Fold this sequence. Notes:
This protein is of the alpha/beta class. The chain contains 14 helices and 15 strands. It starts with a helix and ends in a 9-residue tail after the last helix.
Amino acid sequence: MTHPIQRIVAAAFYLSTAILFFQCGKSSESSETSLAVNAESFVPNPQVVSEKPIGKLAIGDQAPPFNLPDLEGKFRTLDDYADADVLVINFTCNHCPTAQAYEDRYISLVNEYQDKSVALIAISTNSPIAVLPEELGYTDLGDYYEEMKIRAEDKGYNFPYLYDGDTHEFSLAYGPTATPHVFVFDKDRKLTYSGRIDASEKPGTGNSEDLRAAIEATLKGQALPAESAQTPAFGCSMKWAWKNEYTIKTNKDWAEKKVTIEKLAPAGLADLLKNDTDELLLVNFWATWCGPCIIEYPEFVTIQRMYGERDFQFVSISMDTPDQADKALKFLKGKASALPNYIMDTEDKYEVIKVVGEDWDGSLPITLLIEPGGKVAYRVPGTIDALALKKAIVDHPMIGRYY
């Protein structure tokens, strides 16, 4: 949501610009373009909607029109790609492991066909508010519009990435069933193919054979054999905005989980940090009197929910004094910290610092990502960058973005 001061500044800017144009008696073409772009900028508003019918395009059906924002907030329509002999629309998203597995192949196809009158675009259809943290175990990002920008930059997307996650207004007419699901249209924008990119999900095992064959046949004006013109699209189910009952229930169940705290002696901490497990261990040292600690703490609960079903475990360690265990527990309950929580059973902070190691200067918070055997793979002294931490976790060889 835009801050009121930002709105006032923006209004003043446009007013002063208008006055300047009036005084000069003219405006440059570049200024007109700039104002036009700003006028059509987009502010996302994902919302729960009532269930609606989902279309199912048949071969030969006309491409439904759309009017969707790209990552710069400019709206794109079907007519924007009218010059292309072939249009490919890939319904995909940020979080799905299958969608991520096909990203590089789709990027390669864009490069391959950039001079062959083929337009390739992507649309994120998922409602971001219908995606649970538990569904984000193979990613660092959800499906919010702002997160789409991050993913596009991280992967170097060379195609328009459009957003339809508010109400699925246009995607419903196409009827994608999973991410990714591609649709190929000819010059007259009639459907020639829909389904998978290829039959080999794991990166390096496929080369977009199905989609490439469809593009080539469409360029030549040839029809695909009936049995290969429409294929199943394997991947994550679509996150329609009305499918939120399970989301509500899961969040409620998590909030009602029991939260406990145990005292941990320095010797026990030493054993814990050895990480004699087969899981990646994330440890955060915090305290109720530490402002940055309590502000960032909910991120750790989300991270546990994201990766907890993988080879991963988050543990919190309070540096409050042992007699403040009830105060620490109250805080943890307020944050639904239903995970291993400890409070150091000593008032000697320097004994704890000695156990953690000389790389810790004693300031809070501090966060360690520890591999089995005790090697620290990622260390954050001070406040975490939640996105950077999630990337460090999901890109660790023990976790990964694909099945």
